[in-house]
Amino acid sequence: MSIFNSLKRCRFVSICIQFRCMTSTEVSTALRPFYFSVHPDLFGQYPDQRQINETSLKQLSSYLESLQRKKYPKPCTLQFYIRVRDKQSNTLKMVWVKLKDSDVRKAVLSILQSCELSTEYVDKIPEEKKKPPNTVNNKSFNFDFTFKNFKDIDPIFGPLSMKQSVAEEMKNYTLEKWLKEHHLIALERSKLTKPIRQDISKLKKIVLENYEVLDVKWDCGWNESQFRGCLQSFLALAEQHPEPMHILKGRTLVFAPFTGVSLDGHIMLYTGEVRHNWLDLIRNVKKYDEVLLRIPGFEKTVSQVLKDIKVVRRKFMPKILAGEYERQLQQLTTNLSDYRGLRGYPKHWPNSLATFEIVVETEAGPLMVSPTGQFIVPSSCPGSLLVNFISENLDDAKRRLETYRMNKHVERSFRSDVLKHFKMETLHKDDNVNPDLMIDCCKKLLKHESKLVYLRGLQVNIATYYSVLSDGVVCIPWNFEI
Hints:
Blueprint: H1 3-8, E1 11-16, H2 24-30, H3 32-38, H4 47-68, E2 76-85, E3 90-99, H5 104-114, H6 120-123, E4 137-142, H7 147-153, H8 158-172, H9 175-211, E5 215-218, H10 224-240, E6 252-256, E7 260-261, E8 267-270, H11 275-283, H12 285-305, E9 310-311, H13 322-342, E10 357-361, E11 368-369, E12 375-378, H14 383-422, E13 426-429, H15 435-447, E14 459-463, E15 467-468, E16 473-477
Parallel strand pairs: 5-6, 6-8, 9-10, 10-12, 13-14, 14-16
Antiparallel strand pairs: 1-4, 2-3, 7-8, 11-12, 15-16
Helix pairs in contact: 2-8, 9-10, 12-13, 14-15
């Protein structure tokens, strides 16, 4: 019989102090509204806020675990972002949670009160009774260490219990139920922001016709009011300084997180900058173009040094300047050339890697095979590490590439069917939802069309979380429960 099984039946005799403490399950239940307000998955469109919440949650879990172990951690203040939802807006609010209490119950109350959440559940739990002076009681206990009670008693499993409870609650939160509760809010917000979308269409048309711009794009989240404001600012700038605007002819204009020229030759205007900086860029576009013209040559060099592999760029690749990308290509070329000169490539490799694809990213980027079968490589990757990685993943990359090439057409067909059947205004998806996931999601939507009547007429974005954005866009997870 194992030690654990013996412990499950053990009878412990100990000296016990008479008081009542919140169990891990009670803590998890009490903080459930808080977790649903700050959960990182809710902040897919806000990576900085998502990272802050993720870090703070880890610190919070450690703090509560210490209290449950009857240890007293140092007081600290944690920063969280929560979604503020009402009929007019869907904004982010920063809150500070001060942790200084020496018992779990007070700490939980402090967390809930900081976020203006109900404390009704905690209020019903009896408070701890202080130990009377010089009084102890010899008492026998029969502990049942089955898994459920074991989690409740042993605080080591507290964080795990919390995570499981949140996961179970999220699983029980079905799409049908969520849509029933939120579709009217989405329709109302969409109706309120419809004039803004109409203004955007008119302003884009003016830019396209007056300056022969190929396209105008928005690459800063979902804020339509800000997009309209940027278009108005640009038109005012163009009217005030018409001379250099001929440079925009045949180019794509993007309002983005930085100012410069992208790898695709798009003119990127940072939404947070003054218009004078936009004007400087437009006047100096030719200098950026000189660097841009050199890029194909550097990409070809990487291809030649790595058995004619195809150098491509991810569809959702982080936007960078051409000069920076040029340096990245040079760095990887040097690493591979040094390795090939010393050792040569493995003999089991095919004569050519022309059917494979490689994406060169920043030094801090990942080394991975993307869901679409591309080798994603940081420019600082040593030649030996990259060669070994390619050797281990050639078959996997080939399989994913073939699957993607087939599925991207299938996805297009399913998206069209979903738009048609539900009469949606729009249907988009987040960058991290690959074709496989999107196809599964669309199949599920079509299969349960009769239960999802509230999807009709909505603007929908397939993501990893539930949310109604300020402009009425409804975000639903691709792996929703029906």
